[in-house]
Amino acid sequence: EQIPVITIDGPGGSGKGTIARLLGERLGWHFLDSGALYRVLGLYAERSGVALDDEAGLTVLAHALPVRFEGGADGARVWLADDDVTSEIRTEYCGGLASKVAALPHVRAALLERQRAFRQAPGLIADGRDMGTVVFPGAPVKIFLTATAEERARRRHKQLNEQGVSVNLSALLREIAERDERDASRAVAPLKPADDAEIVDTTEVSIASVVERVLNIAERRL
Ligand code: C5P
């Protein structure tokens, strides 16, 4: 029997990361933050001086990506070789780098097996854009989280403020909208719900009730 996977896809700021981590804790399952892979790759490209449109060069970097995830659901740290990049990859700047390298088909293909390797017993919560459509198309439970762009920008703004990063809300809203547009319009693995995904709007819904809602859906489908 196959190891179960719950895929959580959606745009940035839809609550995916938070919800996926909480689900991982509740179920005691593994967790894949696929966006972190693309963010680390974007950073690695920049540090290596590989241009963001050099698909062949970026594909080589993607295969060799010396990324490491450490720790459990909360307080997980992300390493690029010997460098702790946990905070750095969360900037909207790194989100932009990620979204550019993520638009390249060979780069995505290079990261496919690495992502699938996270599927380990007793189960996996996979957070991203194409978890239900491309990486785990056979997953028994697929969730697509949404929220209005304004709400997502507000959440990111709050999150960044808590981390001591001050940003302008309207600039953030513009950056988020741009990144969504790039993610949704790309030719390969665009941001869109799988046909068999359950769409959950998280605008004005508490985190706790989204988690309960997803657990209910999971119970019905697993
Ligand atoms: O989820 P997060 O904001 O960390 O993702 C950063 C970027 O990485 C996204 O804007 C998207 O372009 C890309 N990404 C992707 N496929 C995934 C996860 C992230 O293309 N499965």
UniProtKB/TrEMBL annotation:
It is found in: Cytoplasm. Its EC number is 2.7.4.25. Signal peptide: none annotated. GO terms for biological process: nucleobase-containing small molecule interconversion; pyrimidine nucleotide metabolic process. InterPro entries: Cytidylate_kin, Cytidylate_kinase_dom, P-loop_NTPase. Its main location: cytoplasm. One of its GO terms (cellular component) is cytosol. Keywords: ATP-binding, Cytoplasm, Kinase, Nucleotide-binding, Transferase. ATP binds at residues 10-18. It catalyses: CMP + ATP = CDP + ADP; dCMP + ATP = dCDP + ADP. Pfam families: Cytidylate_kin (PF02224). Residues 6-219 form the Cytidylate kinase domain. One of its GO terms (molecular function) is CMP kinase activity. PANTHER family: CYTIDYLATE KINASE, CYTIDYLATE KINASE/PANTOATE-BETA-ALANINE LIGASE. Belongs to the cytidylate kinase family. Type 1 subfamily. This is Cytidylate kinase. The gene is cmk.
